[in-house]
Design brief:
The structure holds two protein chains of two kinds. In chain A, 43% of the residues lie in helices and 14% in strands. By secondary structure, chain A is an alpha/beta fold. Chain A folds into two domains: 39-142 and 298-323, D-Maltodextrin-Binding Protein, domain 2, CATH 3.40.190; 146-294 and 372-417, D-Maltodextrin-Binding Protein, domain 2 (3-Layer(aba) Sandwich). Classes of the chains: A alpha/beta, B mainly alpha. Chains A and B meet through helix 1, helix 3, helix 4, helix 9 and helix 18 of A and helix 1 and helix 12 of B.
Amino acid sequence: MTMSRRGVLVAGAGAAGAGLLAGCGSNTGRGGGDAHGTQLSQWYHQYGEAGTEQAVERYAGAYRKARVRVQWRPGNYDQQTAAALLTDSGPDVFEVNGPTLDQIQGGQVVDLTELVKDVEDDFNPAVLAPKTYDGRVWGIPQVVDMQMLYYRKSLLRDAGVEPPDTLDALVDAAGKLTSSKVKGLFLGNDGGAGVLGGTPLYAAGLRLVTEDGKVGFDDPAAARTLGKLHRLYADKSLLLGAPADWSDPSAFTQGLTAMQWSGLWALPQIRKELGDDFGVLPFPGDGGDGRPCVPVGAYGAAVSGRSRHKEAAKEFVRWLWVQRTDYQEDFALSYGFHIPARISLARKAAQLRSGAAADAVRYTTDHGYAQPLLWTPAAQTAYQDALSRIISGGASPEGELRAVVRKAGAELDRVKSTKKVKKAS
Amino acid sequence: MRRRRALWFWVFVGPFALGLALFTYVPLLWSVGLSFFDAHNTVTPTHFVGLDNYTAMLQDDAFVGSLRTFLVFTAFIVPVTYLLSLSLALMVNRLRRARAFFRSVFFLPAACSYVVAALVWKMSVFNGVRFGLANTVLGWIGQGPVAWLAGTDPPWYWLVIVTVRLWLQAGFYMVLFLAGLQRIDPVLYEAAAVDGARPGWTVLRHITLPQLRATSVGVVLLLVVNAFQAFDEFYNLLSDARGYPPYARPPLVYLYYTALGQGQNLGLGSAGAVILALVIAVVTVGQARWLRLGRTDADG
């Protein structure tokens, strides 16, 4: 058989077209029902700690009532899920650093209140509260994460500096610890605007949003405290431009800085490399009403409002994140280093009973604050921009905060007026 | 016969037209539609808000500020890239030996990914600690380390951004200029020499540049559009897990956070995208008219 050149091209184009169309059926991991029963897709963000992926595969494999396919998603997870929830090809069950109020109000996540109703008191209230809206629970906290200040005992001793217990003492300590080779403090490569967030406001005795849903930092104390952060920058006490950012303890363990703000997850690595030569502190309080504080947060398990198997997905979440406390304990403590979200498990954990880990647990209980649900991403962006301009640009804290209070107030009005939660269809 | 031709036309053009419609025009029109709705966390909104999103975007200091910054950035980066790539092309074009080698050497960075180049610049060349490449050089002359990307006074981050952009782009535009230079008839230079024109500036001004008009117009248009659409190297140089600092923030990066980040305000993001598209369209059309696009080199 002979074929003209045009014929070959047409055949080729046809084959390519068929291939393209076949490619359109993306592999979301979500299956329909089949002979083996319901198929569920579960998404996790990529944990850095070895063994976590195998562990969650194992938990999913042990579930008998449905086939659960785990997707381990590297990259910008929050944005991936946000986009996937707009389509029918997203996950059934997913972990989320939220859900955000807009996601709840938009009906993108399913009400999970009934799953926790018998054990609600056993969840750490600091992390359950931001997952609760309108008296309903929209995500089941998996583990508690927190951030704190790590300091190198030997460097402080050599410089004759006590571990700082006020913000003024922290500013002074950072200055004294700074030399030509070592900086005093590392708050992230942007000078702290990103990671600190509302922490300095809580340290000043204020809050992001008040109990009755108003802006919580329309107060001269806020400007006073934020102004002190600029002093750290102006004194050149801050480490800036380190190869690894605040979430990685490398700058601290490599001796580039004497103190670093980082997460609880960094503790095992720091202990491995520095032994006992380090201590941990909360962010120190500032001013008369000030108090020390540490930010806490939790990835939570949520069910997508667009899942075709909502009941099956809820059942799976109940099984894994409510009933299987053995898996919850394993997930929190065997790979990375997190505090179990269940109070009963946290009390049992031997790893959390001594040294810096015990301090971290105590800070979480005594000084932990979680970002309120009403604090929207738009308000956060406005605040973070202002904080950046105050810290590294030397902008007037009063002027910057005035603009943020206006913007955050408008956002609070918006979300409070969108009271209704859309029924997830 | 005519029907057959029409059939073949659609066989060949159809799939591409379909792809273009499906993946470019439908999203574009959808986005314009979204811009008139309150579209938080949804692409099928129901709450019509008219021009509210446009008003909000135009009153948003961060967005207007980013547009302003990028007008200034464009006014700076376009002539600098133009001059650098033209100079490289003129130099390479004069080489008698190893021309292909140098052409490749200067062009190679264009093959490098923006993301990779940005990360090399950020983590190795311009990191803020004492062992970064730039800071090591400063150390030799007794200067302390500079936080290239973290400080705003002075705004050293522009140095990082501009150098990575020049390194990535100059080679590509150099090749365009080389192609233009090689199309110039050597007879013109001979005639100019006979008429007594001195080689150098006079010849460049009266022969080379007018003959390169079409290439220049194309290069400038591409550079302007590229400057407004800046995203990759900015995002990879300056963003972190917590967001993007309020300086050197391109409009696209801001819209990315508004619409696609945690913000998920697709209506507001779409309104911003339409405004940005209009700005690019107005600048491009204005520029094309000013530069008399469409005239050939010979018309010059």
